[in-house]
Automatic annotation (TrEMBL):
Record field: catalytic activity: 6-(2-amino-2-carboxyethyl)-7,8-dioxo-1,2,3,4,7,8-hexahydroquinoline-2,4-dicarboxylate + 3 O2 = pyrroloquinoline quinone + 2 H2O2 + 2 H2O + H(+)
GO MF entries: pyrroloquinoline-quinone synthase activity
Domain Thiaminase-2/PQQC: 16-226
Protein name, UniProt field: Pyrroloquinoline-quinone synthase
Job description of the protein: Ring cyclization and eight-electron oxidation of 3a-(2-amino-2-carboxyethyl)-4,5-dioxo-4,5,6,7,8,9-hexahydroquinoline-7,9-dicarboxylic-acid to PQQ.
InterPro entries named among the record's database cross-references: Haem_Oase-like_multi-hlx (IPR016084), PqqC (IPR011845), PqqC-like (IPR039068), Thiaminase-2/PQQC (IPR004305)
Domain of life, source organism: Bacteria
The entry's keywords: Oxidoreductase, PQQ biosynthesis
EC category name: oxidoreductase
Species in which this protein is naturally found: Ameyamaea chiangmaiensis
Family (UniProt): Belongs to the PqqC family.
Enzyme Commission (EC) number: 1.3.3.11
Gene Ontology biological-process annotations: pyrroloquinoline quinone biosynthetic process
Pathway membership: Cofactor biosynthesis; pyrroloquinoline quinone biosynthesis
């Protein structure tokens, strides 16, 4: 199969191709993530990761809202609305975004500084905004397919929680409380998205589109770690205006 002359895959073959993309390109393979999980980063580098990842977490509900507005049936809207509720919560202080702020607080970052986005790496902003725009502008099928990185997230979450608790004395189970609900939410969401893609990607062209959508999403997550690695792992090259370890923003 080639991009210029693709052949039609069975649903099972398409799923295998999607999973192969994750095996090759998911960001658990990135050197920065390996260092994070293996205890090779210092506290300031972990802070930089959490601060930049906050922007991704905070924009996920907006990304999902752009898709929700385009979904044609109540059934699909109910399914996708649940994702927004998972991240935004149903009351102040609830939901995944609020739990991520507990993580940054536990790492010693001022909440106002985190939410101001003043310390964000430029590449983080560009990457996350590109993802929101992709979901807003591409077909519903491509938008749903781009969420399939959730197929691979339970593995990375398990590695992250166990590794960080084992290696960092400044990390506690309470700090990492964001991740516990994701162990059930992500498989539920990816099961739905995968079933939708298997059912609706029924031509060589639409199958290529969903494969490219997943590659794009993997590239977004990978590029965010590239930026962190470049800026904060020796020799550090922090760009102007981004978070500087040891400043007043980090307690």
């Amino acid at each position: 199969m080639t991009a210029t002359n693709p052949t039609l895959l069975s649903a099972d073959e398409l799923e295998q191709a999607l999973r192969a993309i994750g095996a090759e390109r998911y960001h658990n393979r990135h050197p920065f993530h390996r260092a994070l999980h293996d205890g090779k980063l210092n506290r300031a580098q972990v802070q930089a990761w959490a601060l930049n990842r906050y922007y991704y977490q905070a924009r996920i509900p907006a990304k999902d809202a752009t898709l929700l507005a385009r979904l044609p049936t109540a059934e699909l809207r109910r399914e996708w609305r649940r994702r927004i509720e998972d991240h935004d919560g149903d009351a102040p202080g609830t939901g995944g975004v609020a739990r991520w702020l507990k993580l940054t607080d536990g790492l010693g970052l001022e909440e106002g500084y985190v939410t101001s986005l003043d310390g964000l790496l430029p590449a983080t902003r560009f990457a996350v905004d590109a993802y929101v725009e992709f979901v807003r502008d591409r077909s519903i099928l491509e938008a749903i397919a781009s969420s399939l990185t959730e197929l691979f997230s339970p593995t990375i979450i398990s590695e992250r929680v166990s590794g960080m608790l084992r290696h960092y004395d400044f990390v506690t189970p309470e700090t990492l409380a964001y991740f516990t609900p994701r162990l059930t939410q992500a498989p539920r969401d990816s099961d739905f998205a995968l079933a939708y893609v298997r059912e609706h990607a029924t031509t060589p062209q639409t199958q290529q589109a969903v494969l490219e959508a997943l590659r794009f999403k993997c590239s977004i997550l990978w590029s965010m770690l590239d930026a962190l690695d470049y800026a904060y792992v020796a020799p550090a090259r922090v760009p102007p205006g981004a978070f500087v370890p040891g400043t007043d923003a980090a307690r």
